[in-house]
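Sequence, please.
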């Protein structure tokens, strides 16, 4: 099942996140991966200072217009880190115009973690992101992003009731299925909560305190690739979780590598997990 996936997010030249993770991983899942880079940064913004930033917002509608002329369509649009409300508007236009009938909208509202917005984001951006999330077939937030999007309190410790309320709040926005990552009910384990109109499912796996950046992007890319390859959403959510565990385990053997996830050596395992 060879699909044409479009990902829209930045390119961080060094940092193993966003576009430089989505391209190889979606390709490894056996799909064509096209990209609209929303900006180019010398590194990601988490832990580096003085990074460069080239905004490419105004390229976005031009790329869409060219693709309209060429009659180019996509099976899926997967969005990650975006830089402004204006970019979010352009993303919506691209989804409306370039998705095939029945094409999927997968949104990772990459903007916050550990109770805090990433550098450079504010509540105005959160409001704009809410609009994009409303149209998502699959929404992949972490707990911090879910709390910001729903306006609920962020909690470090919580029970299943809190998680269900977050998911319901996201559904009320209009999102189809919620794949909530980093859901931790007891020490030593973490997991992913899959919630949709037919009910909920929790996949628990071991927690390895990673400290490394970009695990969310690895997760969302593999989820997208596995789903587009014909796995059910629950299977795709599990495969992505298992792969992230492998990646973090490998990365932890190198104490000097905290800026990103060493996902590359694990790609053969991903291919096996997918039965390719
Ligand atoms: O991993 C999310 C991400 C992507 N791109 C850039 C980032 C971040 C998180 O900080 O800074 C530029």
């Amino acid at each position: 099942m060879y699909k044409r996936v479009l990902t829209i997010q930045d390119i961080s030249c060094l940092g193993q996140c966003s576009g430089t993770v989505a391209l190889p991983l979606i390709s490894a899942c056996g799909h064509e991966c096209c990209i609209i880079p929303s900006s180019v940064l010398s590194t990601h913004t988490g832990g580096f200072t003085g990074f460069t930033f080239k905004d490419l917002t105004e390229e976005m509608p031009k790329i869409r217009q060219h693709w309209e002329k060429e009659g180019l369509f996509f099976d899926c649009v997967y969005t990650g880190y975006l830089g402004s409300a204006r970019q979010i508007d352009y993303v919506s236009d691209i989804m409306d115009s370039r998705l095939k009938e029945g094409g999927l909208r997968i949104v990772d509202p990459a903007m916050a973690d550990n109770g805090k917005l990433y550098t450079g984001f504010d509540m105005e951006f959160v409001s704009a992101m809410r609009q994009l999330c409303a149209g998502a077939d699959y929404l992949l937030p972490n707990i911090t992003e879910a709390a910001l999007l729903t306006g609920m309190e962020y909690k470090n410790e919580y029970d299943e009731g809190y998680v269900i309320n977050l998911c319901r709040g996201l559904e009320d926005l209009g999102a189809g299925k919620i794949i909530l990552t980093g859901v931790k009910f007891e020490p030593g384990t973490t997991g992913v909560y899959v919630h949709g109109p037919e009910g909920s499912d929790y996949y628990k796996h071991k927690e390895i305190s990673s400290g490394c950046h970009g695990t969310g992007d690895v997760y969302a890319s593999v989820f997208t690739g596995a789903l587009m390859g014909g796995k059910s959403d629950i299977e795709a959510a599990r495969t992505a979780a298992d792969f992230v565990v492998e990646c973090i385990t490998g990365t932890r053997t190198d104490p000097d590598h905290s800026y990103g996830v060493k996902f590359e050596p694990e790609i053969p395992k991903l291919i096996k997990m997918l039965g390719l």
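Residues 10, 12, 17-18, 41, 44-46, 81, 110, 118, 214, 216-217 surround PXL (CB under 6 Å).
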